[in-house]
């Protein structure tokens, strides 16, 4: 297997896309990535696109092909992959695998979603289709419900009074909104930058114990990256960022899940990525993790091995996940501050890490010194699909 | 890149699945494939699943993960790929690529759909989302309309009176129904086996010049295959069938398509597959091609290189695509006779070819002598996604 690099990244403004269609959003992000890479469109040999619900949002199935056509990529293979909110993570993983295999040298990958137009109640209901249809969605479960249960289980498991846990969870929201407010591409740019824990606690209750500010927003947006064989990367750029390892794991319906606060699929996925990268959690200086809800970030940080079981809530409260802390978590704003266009999120995370590792993060959000290793964590459904991508500024040690 | 073999295949009865869910259908096909391969479920390292519209059919997004859970595959990567009616072809192609790359040794791939429950008008409308949403579906175009236009263009281009072309197209329907009637897994098993050209012509007009018998049915069903590194295949089976080459191509919205009866994406995809396999169209003895409508088979046969441009309609009428003819086309019944559960069709085609190449086709449908080389052709949307898979009874010549 060959080594793989990212040579270009592109990202639309997250938030309300208005009249722009999903295909237009994707083309915008893709063209930025291609321009950033300094390549000609004719050098792209395949396209992988993550998109979760475009059929419901715009009546568009098979969007990857039409994106390839919009981008004038010719008859190259263009494939949509769908793993709910992890779709773009899977798309980039596919691209990395294909380049690693030697089949292709340059592949475009990313994701897109236009979720805002559905309106909150319909979006919530539509998103819930990524739960198990027969045992969960049919019972009325939605994602706020899933993560409210997870929060209660976490409090119970680690013997933390629920009100105390709410305060610790609120620290995730404060931190990620703080970062998002400084990210010009974020949905909440220049908003909620001075949020306090009390603001989160007093915000509208969505699903007890999760308030509105514990939840990520609905968003439109797209992000894309150009993946290239590492041996050819320096032909295009002086700052290739290497994909050192990727992982993917699959969960079960909740009724068969052994432990909701120790998601086995995430543990397996992270293990796969770390093994391939040849590094350990302690080597990572920056992570973009799937904070669809505040509690989700806490659970993720433990499953990825950054903190022991039951320790991430306290660590967050103590600032260990701030920029300048033990590991900077979601310095882009994460899903909570940057926004969560579901099929695009995995690519947005990679975009934000590449910015960090090039030393080009938005003002105030740059981790110092420039991180050597970064990691994404993208979750689809209620612990159904997990995808991790580990990036490095230098190639893998042999 | 390593060579790849198929060591097991499974297929549900196509037609009306009744109370069985899509996940149950997929598990049924997958377990048959696993049993056929004689492997333990624990040997499967990844799952690729094609599914086009399960969100609309059953409110189930991210089905691959739940299929992996149903099959007790553990936390292995489980990925849904979507290329409309070509979804399962892409899933098998992904599996083949991953095994070829050396990343995995044994991968399960297939597809599923439960389309019948939607009812014809809703299914037609829902399927049309695989057209370009803004320029085609919004204008009221549906797939019968697309292929009726293609038939008229074909008649015009090759100066064939439309009534004459209708007779030639009817020969596709007669042939494929004849085969389907002898295939116990086909939706039309023991039905329409003695259809005459006049029956097709006099059948209900759906979209002029296409009658009901020019169209494939809506279907429920699933099919799956086990893909394995060629060097390990004989550990499991005495009759591995090798994946010699695969191809994938992408089209454009119809408004930008150069020539609807010479689909460039199909030509590109077939060329990719033939190049990888190191053989030519004349080497293929059996093909399962995407006959969603009778005219679609004719167009496919020319684009794949089996017949010259404008020659496949005559060749069909002259019996050259019958079993015993120059090349046996759709001896399983094809989409018209076997049924078309959209996300499953590409895997069903591979299943049928593997049967042929093992000499185990349904009675009366076996091509003699047992074919050395076979080819699938799967189409998603209106010439949007093309996928081809070339199979051989022996490994690639070095």
Structural overview:
The structure is a homodimer of 398-residue chains. With 398 residues, the first copy, chain A, is α/β, with parallel strands linked by helices. Helices cover 36% and strands 18% of the residues of chain A. Chain A has helices at residues 22-37, 54-58, 63-70, 87-101, 120-127, 143-157, 162-180, 197-202, 230-233, 264-277, 294-303, 312-317, 334-338, 345-357, and strands spanning 4-11, 46-50, 78-82, 106-114, 205-207, 210-211, 220-229, 241-250, 286-288, 328-329, 373-380, 385-392.
- Total count of domains of chain A: 1
**Helices and strands of chain A: which structural class?**
alpha/beta
CATH-scheme architecture of chain A: 3-Layer(aba) Sandwich
At the first level of CATH, what is the class of chain A?
Answer: Alpha Beta
Element-by-element helix/strand order of chain A: EHEHHEHEHHHHEEEHEHEHHEHHEE
The level of helicity of chain A is: 25-40%
Biggest interchain interface, per-side counts: A-B, 61 and 61 residues
Count of helical stretches of chain A: 14
Enter the CATH topology name of chain A.
Peroxisomal Thiolase, Chain A, domain 1
Quaternary structure state of the chains depicted: homodimer
Overall average residue pLDDT of chain A: 97
How would you write the strand order of the largest sheet of chain A? 3-2-4-7-1-8-12-11-9-10
Percent of sequence in beta strands of chain A: 15-25%
Q: Calculate the terminal CA-CA distance of chain A, rounded to whole Å.
A: 13 Å
Largest β sheet strand count, sense and barrel closure of chain A: 10 strands, mixed
- Uncertain segments of chain A of ≥5 residues (pLDDT<50)? none
- CATH superfamily membership of chain A: Thiolase/Chalcone synthase
**What is the gyration radius of chain A calculated from CA atoms?**
19 Å
């Amino acid at each position: 297997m060959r080594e793989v690099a990212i040579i270009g990244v592109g990202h639309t403004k997250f938030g309300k896309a208005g009249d722009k269609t999903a295909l237009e959003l994707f083309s915008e992000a893709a063209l930025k990535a291609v321009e950033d890479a300094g390549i000609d469109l004719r050098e792209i040999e395949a396209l992988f696109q993550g998109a979760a619900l475009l059929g419901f949002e715009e009546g568009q199935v098979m969007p990857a092909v039409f994106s390839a056509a919009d981008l004038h990529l010719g008859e190259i293979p263009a494939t949509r992959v769908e793993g709910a909110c992890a779709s773009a993570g899977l798309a980039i993983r596919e691209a990395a695998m294909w380049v690693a295999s030697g089949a292709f040298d340059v592949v475009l990958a990313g994701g897109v979603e236009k979720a805002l137009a559905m309106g909150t109640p319909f979006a919530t209901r539509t998103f819930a289709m990524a739960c198990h249809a027969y045992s969960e969605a049919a019972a009325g479960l939605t994602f706020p419900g899933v993560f409210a249960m997870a929060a209660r289980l976490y409090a119970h498991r680690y013997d933390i009074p629920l009100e105390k846990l709410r305060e610790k969870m609120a620290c995730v929201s404060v931190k990620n909104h703080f970062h998002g407010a400084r990210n010009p591409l974020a949905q909440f740019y220049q908003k909620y930058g001075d949020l306090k824990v009390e603001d989160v606690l007093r915000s509208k209750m969505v699903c007890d114990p999760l308030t509105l500010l514990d939840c990520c927003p609905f968003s439109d947006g797209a992000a894309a990256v150009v993946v290239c064989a590492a041996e050819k990367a320096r032909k295009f750029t002086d700052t290739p960022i290497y994909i050192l390892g990727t992982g993917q794991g699959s969960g079960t319906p909740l009724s068969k899940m052994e432990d909701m606060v120790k998601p086995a699929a995430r543990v397996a996925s992270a293990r796969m990525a770390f093994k391939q990268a040849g590094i350990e959690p302690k080597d990572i200086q920056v992570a973009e993790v799937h904070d669809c809800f505040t509690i989700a970030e806490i659970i993720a940080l433990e499953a990825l091995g950054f903190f022991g079981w039951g320790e991430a809530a306290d660590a967050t409260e103590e600032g260990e996940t701030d920029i300048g802390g033990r590991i900077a978590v979601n310095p882009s704003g994460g899903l909570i501050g940057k926004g969560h266009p579901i099929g695009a999120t995995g690519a947005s995370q990679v975009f934000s890490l590449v910015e960090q590792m090039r030393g080009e993060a938005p003002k105030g959000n740059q981790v110092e010194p420039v991180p050597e290793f970064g990691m994404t964590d993208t979750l689809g459904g209620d612990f159904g699909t997990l995808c991790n991508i580990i990036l490095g500024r230098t190639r893998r040690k042999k």
